[in-house]
Amino acid sequence: MRATLLVILLAGDLAIFPGVRAEETAAHFILSSPDGNLTLRVETSPALALRLVRGLETLLEVDRMALTLAGEPDRVLDGRHGPLRESRREHRAVLHPVVPEKRSVIPDEYNELDLRFGDGYGLVVRVYDDGAAWRFVTDQPGEITVRAETAAYRFPGDPVAWFGEEENFMTHSERVYPKLAVKSLATRQMACLPVLVRLDSGTLLAVTEADLADYPGMYLRGDGREALLHARFPSYPLKEELRRDRDLVVTERADYLAVTAGKRAYPWRAVLVATQDRQLLENDLVYRLAPDLELSDTAWIRPGKVAWDWWNANNLFGVNFEAGINTATYCHYIDFAARYGIGYIILDEGWSDTTDLFKINPKLDLPAVLRHARSQNVGIILWCVWLTLERQMDEALPAFEEWGVKGIKVDFMQRDDQKMVNFYWKCARQAAAHHLLVDFHGAYKPTGLRRAYPNVLTREGVRGLEWNKWSRDVTPAHDVTLPFTRMLAGPMDYTPGAMLNAQEKEFAPVFRVPMSQGTRCHQLAIYVIFESPLQMLADSPSHYWREPEAMELLAAVPTTWHETRALDARVGEYVLLARRTGEEWWVAAMTDGSARTLDVSFDFLGQGPWRADIWQDGVNAHRHGRDFVRRPQQVDAATTLTVRLAPGGGWVARIRR
C-alpha cells in the first residue's frame, strides 16, 4: 500500500518528497540539492523531460530534449525507452581558481545523477544549492555527426525576461537587455545567453551554458504563444566569404551542427536560481561546471590593469610631440602606466597591418617601445584580427614570446559555430604554450574556457563603453543590468574609465572625443562591480594626469578578489556590493538614471577601527557628471552609512585597517 501511494505521488507533485529516490518507477528520477531546497525531476518516458522545483513552486520545465545523430536513418536520442543503468554520487569539494574573479575559495558541492540508455548515450544531471545543470553524453565509435539538439524551456505563469536579442548568428554578442514578457516573444526573436527570467513569484532564473567545446553555442528563441523558449544553434559553416579585412561571413551552412568524437560529453545546459536579486552577484556556477585546469605552470599568469589607446583615439594633449600610432605616443602610455603601477598597455589596431602581423607600422619603432616597456616593468599586449592570427599563429606566437610581448587581444570572431568555438580553444592553448595572456573581443559569452586555460583573463561579448562613441545605448540602467545578465557567464571587458562624464540629457556620442553617461563616481564604481581580471583604463593619459584623486582609486583598485558579498541589488536599478582582496575591502554602489539613497552596513568587517577613503557624487553631480568628492571616514562593524547617489551615480569606499 505504501509503495502504491508513493508511485501516485511521484506521478504528481514530487516537491512533497524532495529527497526521495525513484527506483520504484522507471519513468521518474529525483535529485535534490545538497541543502534540499531545489529538486530536479527527470522523466524518461515517453521522452526526456526535466522539472525544477523549489518547495512547492515549479520553477521550470524542460521538454522536447533530444540529440539527433545523422545516419541511415537518423537516430533520435530522447530517452523514450528508459535507462538501462543509473548511478548517483555526492560531490563535496573546494576549488582554488588560478585567477580569482569573485572569490579565492569556491565551494563546489552538488548531487549528481547519471542515466545511461541503450544505443550508447546518457544524460548527466547535477543539482547545486544555487542552480542545476544537465548534459548529454554519447559513447559511439569513431566520429559522429550531430544533426540537431532540441529543448524547450517552459516557465510558469506570466514571466518576464531580460532578452539580449540577436538578428542572426553573425554577432559580437554586444546586446542591450530589454525586459519583455516571455509570452510576447515571437518565434523570430532570438537571444544570446545568458537569458534572465523573473517568475511571477519574484524568483530569478538565468539560463546559460558551460563547457562549450567542439560544438556550437546555444541561443534561445521565442514561441509566439506560450511562456516557452526554444533552444537554437548555428549549424556548421560550409562556405565563408571574407568581407573587409576581418569579417568572415558564413554564406552557406550544413544540415548538421557538428562532426565530433563519438565518445564525449556535450556542453552543460545550466540554470542559475536566486530568490533575491543580489544572490546572482555571488553565483559562479558557470565556473564550477567548467573543465579542469589544463596547465601545469601558471605562475606567469598575472592579472592587472591596462592603459588602452583605441577608445580615446590616442588623444594626448600637453605633450611636445604629435600624438598618434607612433613611438613617442606609446612610450608616453608606458610612462603613465609605470607612474601608477598599471601592469600593461595595449597597442590596438594600427600597430601592424591588419592582414600581416609582421608588417609593422613604419611610424612605430616596436623594438624601442618594447625595450622601454621592459625598463619600466610594463607589459605590452598586441591587438590582432583573429583571421590573421589563425593564418600566422605558428609564426606569430613564438615571435611575440621572443619579443617579450605579454599578451594578445584577439578580435572580430563574431560567431560561435563549431568551427569558431574550436578556434578559441586552439588560441588559448597555443598562447599558453608561449606564456601569452588572451583577451577575446568580438566574442561570444564565456562558458568556462578560462578555468582550463586561465591565461584567458577576460573577453568582451558585452555592449561596453566603446558604444558611447557612436550611440546612446550604454546608459546607467544598462550598466546596472549587466551584472545580472552578461556577467553571470564570466568576466567582461567593458573597458571603463571615462573621465568626461555627462548626465543622460547632456550626453552626446562623439567618436574621437568620447564621454560616458552617468557620473564620475559611476565610472569609478564599475572597477569594483564589474569583473574583469584584465581591466582597462580606457581614457587618455592626459585626462588621468589631471585627475589625481580619481587616479588614487584607479591605481589601487584590484582586478581579482578573494571574497565577494552582495549587499543589496535590483536588476536594472541599482547594485551595492563589497569585495575583499587580502585584508582590504572595497565597497561600491551604482544606480540607474534615478537618484537613490542606500544604507550601507559594514557588519562584514572584522574588529576595527577601519579607515574608509570614500569617493562620492558631488552636490552638483545631477547636472555636472564630473562633480565628485573624496573624503576619509572612520568605520567599524557597527557603522551604517547612508549613501546618496545622483542620477546615474556611483559611490566607492576603500577600507583599510
List keywords for this structure.
disordered N terminus, globular, alpha+beta, TIM Barrel, 657 residues, 19-stranded antiparallel sheet, 3 domains, 40 strands, 16% helix, Beta-galactosidase, Chain A, domain 5, single chain, seven-stranded parallel sheet
Q: Please, could you describe this protein's structure?
A:
This protein is α+β, with helices and mostly antiparallel strands. It has 3 domains: 2-275, Beta-galactosidase, Chain A, domain 5; 304-461, TIM Barrel; 464-531 and 559-657, Aldolase class I (TIM Barrel), CATH 3.20.20.70. Helix content is 16%, strand content 38%. The strands form 7 sheets. The protein has a 19-stranded antiparallel sheet that branches. The N and C termini lie far apart (66 Å).
Uncertain residue segments: 1-25
The biggest beta sheet is recorded as:
19 strands, antiparallel
| CATH topology label of the largest domain | Beta-galactosidase, Chain A, domain 5
Q: Mean of the pLDDT scores?
A: 95
Q: Find the structural class using helix and strand composition.
A: alpha+beta
> What level of helicity do the residues show?
10-25%
Q: What fraction of the residues are assigned to beta strands by DSSP? A: 35-45%
Give a short synopsis of this structure.
The chain is an alpha+beta fold and 657 residues long. It folds into 3 domains: 2-275, Beta-galactosidase, Chain A, domain 5; 304-461, Aldolase class I (TIM Barrel, Alpha-Beta Barrel); 464-531 and 559-657, TIM Barrel (Alpha-Beta Barrel), CATH 3.20.20.70. The protein has a 19-stranded antiparallel β-sheet that branches.
